[in-house]
C-alpha cells in the first residue's frame, strides 16, 4: 500500500522530514547503534581524521579562502595571507576543534531527539546566509564534495580495521552512507531556501546547483 507523505510537513517540520528520509533509505535505530560502535572504534583517530579533512580543504585555493574569514564564535587572531595559512594557524585550530566535536557527537549520539535534529540542521544553516551574522556562506559544491571525502575517510577506517568482522563492516558502511545522505539533505534544504529567498530563477531540479556555482 502506498504511503502518504505530506509535502508541507516535509518542507516545514524537521522531525517529519527526518522520518520521511529515514523511511525512504531505511535508516533505523540499528544504524544509530552501529554509528555508536564506530564512534568508540574511531575515537582515538578523530584528530588525525580532522587534520586530513582540513588539509584537503587547504589543498585548493577555492576552499582555502573561506578560512581567511572570521567565523562566528571565533575571537582570536585571523591570518589573512593565504600563503601563511596552515593547519597550525589559530583560526584553523579553532575549526579543527569544532569539527572534532561534530564528528564525536554524530557518532556518539544514541537518541536522535528533536534537539539533535535541530543541531544537524543548524550546522547546515550556518554555512549559508540564512543564519545572518552566524554565516560563512559556503558554496554548496564544496559542502557536497566534502561530505563525500569525509565519508570515504571514515569508510577507510572501517574497512581497514582487522578487528571487526565483514558483517559489521558492511553494516557500518551502510549506516555511514545513510547518515551522510540525511546530513547532506539538512544542508541542502537551507541552500534551497536561500535560493528561493534570493528569487533566483532555477528549475525545480537545479535549485541547489544554482547556488553560486
Notes on the protein architecture:
The protein has 213 residues and is mainly alpha-helical. The chain is built from nine helices and no strands. The N and C termini lie far apart (41 Å). The C terminus is likely disordered.
Question: Briefly, what is this?
Answer:
By secondary structure, the chain is mostly helical. The chain has 9 helices and no strands.
Secondary structure layout:
Elements: H1 7-12, H2 14-25, H3 29-42, H4 46-58, H5 61-64, H6 90-108, H7 114-125, H8 140-159, H9 166-198
Helix pairs in contact: 3-6, 3-9, 4-6, 4-8, 7-9, 8-9
List keywords for this structure.
213 residues, mainly alpha, 9 helices, 62% helix, globular
Radius of gyration: 18 Å
What is the number of E strands?
Answer: 0
- Level of helix content? 55-70%
Distance between the termini: 41 Å
Estimated share of beta-strand residues: under 5%
User: Could you say which overall geometry the principal axes of the C-alpha atoms support?
Assistant: globular
Individual helix count: 9
* SSE order, one letter for each helix or strand: HHHHHHHHH
- Category from helices, strands and their pairing: mainly alpha
Report the major sheet: none
| Average pLDDT | 88
Low-confidence stretches: 200-213
Amino acid at each position: 500500500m502506498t504511503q502518504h507523505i505530506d509535502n508541507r510537513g516535509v518542507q516545514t517540520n524537521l522531525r517529519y522530514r527526518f522520518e520521511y528520509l529515514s523511511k525512504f533509505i531505511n535508516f533505523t535505530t540499528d544504524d544509530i547503534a552501529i554509528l555508536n560502535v564506530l564512534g568508540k572504534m574511531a575515537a582515538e583517530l578523530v584528530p588525525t581524521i580532522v587534520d586530513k579533512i582540513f588539509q584537503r580543504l587547504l589543498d585548493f585555493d577555492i576552499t582555502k579562502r573561506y578560512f581567511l574569514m572570521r567565523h562566528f564564535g571565533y575571537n582570536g587572531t585571523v591570518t589573512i595571507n593565504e600563503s601563511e595559512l596552515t593547519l597550525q594557524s589559530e583560526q584553523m585550530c579553532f575549526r579543527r576543534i569544532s569539527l572534532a566535536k561534530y564528528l564525536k557527537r554524530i557518532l556518539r549520539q544514541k537518541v536522535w531527539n528533536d534537539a539533535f535534529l535541530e543541531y544537524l540542521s543548524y550546522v547546515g544553516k550556518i554555512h549559508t546566509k540564512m543564519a545572518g551574522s552566524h554565516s560563512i556562506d559556503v558554496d554548496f559544491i564544496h559542502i557536497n564534495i566534502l561530505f563525500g571525502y569525509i565519508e570515504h575517510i571514515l569508510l577507510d577506517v572501517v574497512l581497514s580495521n582487522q578487528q571487526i568482522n565483514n558483517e559489521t563492516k558492511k553494516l557500518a558502511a551502510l549506516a555511514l552512507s545513510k547518515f551522510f545522505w540525511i546530513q547532506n539533505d539538512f544542508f541542502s534544504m537551507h541552500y534551497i531556501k536561500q535560493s528561493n529567498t534570493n528569487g533566483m530563477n532555477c528549475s525545480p531540479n537545479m535549485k541547489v546547483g544554482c547556488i553560486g556555482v
